[in-house]
Amino acid sequence: MSMPAVKPYAARQLFEIRQATEEDINAITEPGGIGTEFYNESEFPNFATLDLECLRRVTLRNIEYGELCVLAGLYKGELTGFVMFSVARHYTVEPLAQLFLFFVSKRRRMGPLGRALLMGAEQVARDAGAVAFYAGATANMGGGIDERLMNLLDKRGYMRLGGVARKLLQESEE
Questions:
Q1: Which of 24, 53, 146, 162 is the most exposed place for a label (fewest CB within 10 A)?
Q2: Which residues in 76-146 belong to E strands, given as ranges?
């Protein structure tokens, strides 16, 4: 299923939300870029090694196949946030949207960029026929980031449905 195009959104010409281009994906996945910033703030360094080339390749392939939508958030032309989500019919007649990654650089968290990214994702999902958007904080980000995302979801009218659990599979079974 191909994703509908996001309607470009600009507020006072300071920031822009757009469908991520290949150039944006390359910026997300360049060493030291915003993808690395996301990884470093998550719990993933505790047990998983970052592979930026794999992230780039898989993201571009999934976009091409219509299985993933990525929106880029730019502030004064600089990529400072992104959201990755899908809209699919896995087990329902109607499509459902699901958030995979949501990140705004530390430098831009106090402004409207996160809300605009979420609103853009909702609009793309709605335009694709999705009847619901599932989202949650799943990367166990430190520094209150998870709670800020959950507060944003609350403000946008999301209903909290439960929690997320994770088990490291390298742990011994007892």
A1: 162
A2: 78-88, 96-104, 133-134
